[in-house]
Amino acid sequence: MWPQAPPRPCDTVRAESAARHAASVGSRTIMKKQPSAGAAAEADLSNVHRAFLPRLTESTADRWIKATTQLFLSLNGEENEALVSLAAAHSADLVSSSLPDGNKVIIKLGAHRGRGKGGSEEVGECECFGSGSQSQKPWIESTFTKRECVYILPVSKDPHRCCCGRLVRQHVGFTASLAAKYSDVKLGENPNLTEQEWSVEKHTEASPTDAYGVINFQGGSHSYRAKYVRVSHDTRPESILRLMLKDWHMELPKILISVHGGVQNFELHPRIKQVVGKGLIKAAVTTGAWILTGGVNTGVAKHVGDALKEHCSRSSKKICTIGIAPWGVLENRNDLIGRDIIAPYQTLLNPLSKLNVLNNLHSHFLLVDDGTVGRYGAEVQLRRDLEKHINLQRIHARIGQGVPVVALIFEGGPNVILTVLEYLQESPPVPVVVCEGTGRAADILAYVHKQTEEGG
């Protein structure tokens, strides 16, 4: 018999309605010069290699490529707390028996559905509701979904881990009886067999979202709150924008600033950090902008959070800062499970964990779920689709002007260069503001831009 996991702390108080953000509309933005259309057409990957890498010594170029590539490799770390499925306590059943695939085993998991508190259905996890909250939020649960891996497809070199990134025992519905069957199978003995490719479409199932409400950040000197929702990676941007405007009571922005850069921590020169931070905040405040980031408390999103912290200490004017982060990379994400709850969330990170915590200076979070754990990428397409949809919204009906989108680049690796290329290939191109001096990809792009302007 598998041990029962301890009950998750839940707060049954309903989320308070947030006041509308007061947006001050101005005409000035403090930004660097945007690349011209001609320069934009030239700023592609081939130019990066021709203009920059040949000027490096071979060893330096190799080190840069290796370092930046490693930055974006998928993480394979375990969760901080092993998720011993509650399904065992709820008589979870095996939906279908083991399906041999060569010497691989694919196991379909399912969970017994029972009636929980307030007549709600439980699927191997704890749910707590405030009085009447279930009936007042039917639209969110009927519109937004989560994704969970329902097939165990072991990694050839690590048979105790599924290709989705979870340990085998961490799958919902994994019971003692299933463990006995699973332990009898010899996995990964023949390394020459082609490993079946895991995919979101084949190996995950969608079900109504089970995590939305208000995050109450813990562990800091100040108490911050943010609204959040767990959504599937293929959620329609129209539904997300409706949630923001109707349920979260956000005002349509006058400009959308999408910040990209390194995911891992990096240092900024104090002077550069101050100038860029003040420029970003001033642009957001004077134009009534929304700021989009990756949402986690590392890398570029942390630097944005630091700028917001400085702003909050001097002004009561709030800035809508939306973190779009993969659900599967979050430390303590199980604390966020619950429908229309106020969820206490600890931001102190276990130094041994390969996961990340959310940045507590953001005002809203979209937690994007594709069924994987420890991997970035689930959020990329949803974020871009949302940006495009917001761009189509008309802020001046008579002249048909949409919401402008501007990309802001800090540091970063090869994926940031590809992101910039995609922005510049849009029709019309999305303006890209590169913060020179922040390092790596940003400095390369700034160098290439200068070379193309000078005809180099």
UniProtKB/TrEMBL annotation:
Q: GO CC annotations? A: plasma membrane
| Name this polypeptide is given | TRPM SLOG domain-containing protein
Tell me one GO molecular function of this protein: calcium channel activity
Domain named TRPM SLOG: residues: 226-455
- Cite a single GO BP annotation: monoatomic cation homeostasis
Q: Which parts form a coiled-coil structure per UniProt?
A: none
High-level lineage: Eukaryota, Metazoa, Chordata, Craniata, Vertebrata
Which InterPro entries does the UniProt record give? TRPM, TRPM_SLOG
